[in-house]
Amino acid sequence: MGLKDKVVKPKNPLQAKYEDHFFCNGFPVISEADDKEVILNFLEDFKKET
Predict the structure, then answer these.
(1) Backbone phi, then psi, for 49, in 5-degree steps?
(2) pTM score, two decimals?
(3) Which domain of life is it from (predicted)?
(4) Which of 24, 34, 41, 49 has the fewest CB atoms within 10 Å, i.e. is most exposed?
């Protein structure tokens, strides 16, 4: 079994959609790993909008 020397590219390459990962039902995803300041800023902005 030898190494292949030709590069094969897919016909339809997969593309990542980053915006899908950062929002869930229109809200930004916040985890326990986020800094406390990030969470407090989000809550302040949320209170202003409602």
Answers:
(1) -80, -20
(2) 0.39
(3) Eukaryota
(4) 49
The pLDDT tens digits of the residues spanning 2-34 come to 777 888 887 877 776 655 567 777 777 777 777
Q: Average of pLDDT values for 23-50?
A: 82
Q: How far is CA 8 from CA 5, 11, 30, 49, in A?
A: 10, 9, 39, 50
**In the chain, where are the structural domains located?**
18-49
Buried b (16+ CB within 10 A) or exposed e, 9-32: eeeeeeeeeeeeeeeeeeeeeeee
